[in-house]
Amino acid sequence: MTPPSEPPASGPARSALPFEVGSDPVAAPLAAFRDWIETRALPFQAQAVRDPAGGFHERIAPDGHPVAMPRRARVAARQLYAFSRLAGLGLGDTVGPGLAGHARDMLLGAHIRPDGRIVPLAGGPEGYDLYDIAFCLFALAAAPEAVLPRAGACALAAQILTRLETGWRHPEMGFEEAMPRRLPLRSNPHMHLFEASLEWLATGPCDPRFEALADEIAGLCLARFLDPATGALRELFDGDWRIAAGAENAVEPGHQYEWGWLLLRWGALRGRAEARRAGLGLIDLAEARGLNADGLAASLLDPALAMADPTARLWPQTERIKAWALRARLATRRADAALPEAKAVEACQGLMRFFQHPLRGSWWENLAEGGAPRREPARTSSLYHIVGAYHELAALEARRSLPVAKEETRASSTA
């Protein structure tokens, strides 16, 4: 079914945004964000993205038609996370549980074997991809009991983790890209494995190896992923975890925000001041160097941190929201939270510009500098980023409602 259309957007203006910031700077953007998810995005997912034959269409063209392409494990996993998270936030009562179950059936039926082996492409052979493994572990952690019994999810995650640790460990820290070795090594899959480990720690006890894995990846990031010359988080490495040379090893502002968010979470959880400092530094670097002329998080910087591609992709805007919202939430005094709150709201305003799309509930993936959208299919996988941003903004608003006397305790116990 083709979803309803709206007038086409080109160069969406800030004045068209559906909220004004008032005395509570977070409440209005959060309400607008929630309304868009509930009245637009979820119906769009149910009508246009869900495939009755199984799984979800990976991309939807601007005219509403699905783009034929293989179904990937990482997308089924991201969808399971997204619909599970929204259900936990009280969104999508009519369609959310059904969509989460649909994602579960696809993930377990087509992509995860009972013994923990992963099938990256539906209908294809089993294979190893650290990115897919990370998202499968992440989705299993996020799925609620009503969708996937916790004991079964934990047992399956333990099987996946055992296979990962016995088959693809790097001799020093982290994991290989392939066996036999394929270079360069990448920080990005480790970032998502870090996120999956933290999700297991947040959702309750399962396997003590997740705590050790989170600590290991945090240590790898602090020791090897950060460029000592610039402070930036780097993407590509040689076999000894040394930063790979070359202009193709660009700096991604979105990943500065995302790693900053993860390091703040882990630092708060483990009481590690050096992780907090590094996380704050990455967020500040992205904010200082990574915004384009429209105030949106850009795609790429060169290794010296000069702007290389000012195009704004959707997902870095969500990571900017998450980073600043958590930074505000971890502030121990309301006065210290004011600037991070304002930045989170500004980032939310930026994200809303991507939602001004001719298909109700869809989004643009890229906006050129100046605001003109690139007319291309929307990626189903982006919902994971959108939901993560909403979740962090909702957590910030809940934090703001606490009495002032309780703030310091709350900030130190949540991440």
UniProtKB/TrEMBL annotation:
GO terms for molecular function: isomerase activity. InterPro entries: 6-hairpin_glycosidase_sf, 6hp_glycosidase-like_sf, AGE/CE. Keywords: Isomerase. SUPFAM superfamilies: Six-hairpin glycosidases. It comes from the Bacteria. Signal peptide: none annotated. Pfam families: GlcNAc_2-epim. One of its GO terms (biological process) is carbohydrate metabolic process. Belongs to the N-acylglucosamine 2-epimerase family. This is N-acyl-D-glucosamine 2-epimerase.
